[in-house]
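Example record

One chain of 285 residues, shown exactly as stored in the release files.
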Amino acid sequence: MLEQVCKAARQQALLPTVLTFTPHPREYFARLNHRPELSPPQISGLRDKLTALADCGIEQIILARFNRAMAEMSATDFVLQLLIEELGVRWLLVGEDFRFGRQRMGDIALLKQLGSQHGMQVQTMLEVTDAHGHRISSSEVRAALGAGDLKHAAHLLGRTFAMTGHVIHGQKLGRTLNMPTMNMKVTPRCAARSGIYVVRVHGLGPLPLPGVASLGVRPTVEDNGRILLETHLLTTNLDAYGKLIRVELLQHVRDEEKFPDLPTLTAAMHADAQHARAYFALHGL
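Predicted structure tokens for this chain:
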């Protein structure tokens, strides 16, 4: 889809642009109806989303606030006020099932009708399928990440699933256990399954570094419910506080557990590190 946008932009001397919303409309309505369980898990944080779009050639990203005014905007106003008057859209690509406006009343027919009246060309795109004819969608990606199936998630995404963030200070418990870790905040409602992962870390040198990471709420040592990604480097110990790193999740090792004491936790951490070393010995970095 993004390739088509960039191609059309080059042909018509326009700026390849993506319009996206924050929060996700489903999340907005889940909050409004006090049904947080209906909020969709997030595949990527904002930084990762914008970086991925830029890597695909998108030069401008419109981040629209989805609020009450946006939710109540009529389908006609969505096209005339937002797309045409405010953004000056000349060429638009949407999926065939695209709906918009209050109560999702707008459809492709209305979009094309208003577009033809105001100089906006509208193109639609069929659903994307892989070589086996299976539909590729965000729901499928969320399901794969939730199951810890990183191979399938990478197949759907076209790249290894990764998280980016700044290394923050933690309790430094890992140091006392001879397993120093780099802590990174994770986007709320992260789609990835909690647990232990074999990872590859970028941003700390010219080459990626092998590691093992824990994604979750640290149930053995904390009870505040904050989700963190804690990464232990297998081959080096660096002062990474404040640095921006990208952590690729390569394999889900096991689910998060609450251990009865620190010695049991320590033994499990060292076993996870050994598993990661065996992974890289087999697959390489």
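Notes: The radius of gyration is 22 Å.
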